[in-house]
Amino acid sequence: VYGLQRNLLVENIIDIYKQESARPLHAKAEQHLMCEEHEDERINIYCLRCEAPTCSLCKVFGAHKDCEVAPLPAVYQRQKSELSDGIAMLVAGNDRIQAIITQMEEICRTIEDNGRRQKQHLGLRFDSLYSILEERKKELLQSIAREQEAKVQRVRGLIRQYGDHLEASSKLVESAIQAMEEPQMAVYLQ
User: What angle do CA 69, 74, 80 make, to 5 degrees?
Assistant: First the structure.
């Protein structure tokens, strides 16, 4: 399947299976298995009910006389075919799972990229807000400083004005006290 990641483990299993299938049977395997009950009889049939290989005598006279049987090569080929189909289905399933894993990994990368972009965007927006707030703070501090200076100047002006009035009033009081101390009526009334 194009675009899917290779699953080397499954490929190795398939290669081993193909090699084993294509290889001729070992010397021991070439010898036919013999029946345990009838030592001179080769195992050549398969009991479908007991799911066990057996010999013809066991079918006719022995433990499998009431069982349904099939030729050993036919059962062997059928089971090998079923196993091969099962392996193919497992391999296809593994390929689908691998494709899903690959998609999920891509989704993870996309989520991480989106998260980084969102964090960066949010950082820039907050930096912009900080900049605006700093500028506004600077303007307000300058306005407060100007207003403070104007009020201080106004109060200092009033202090000077009242100081001048106080000095004039003190001089008047001093002059009035001196006038009160004047013993001569004519000088006092001037």
Answer: 120
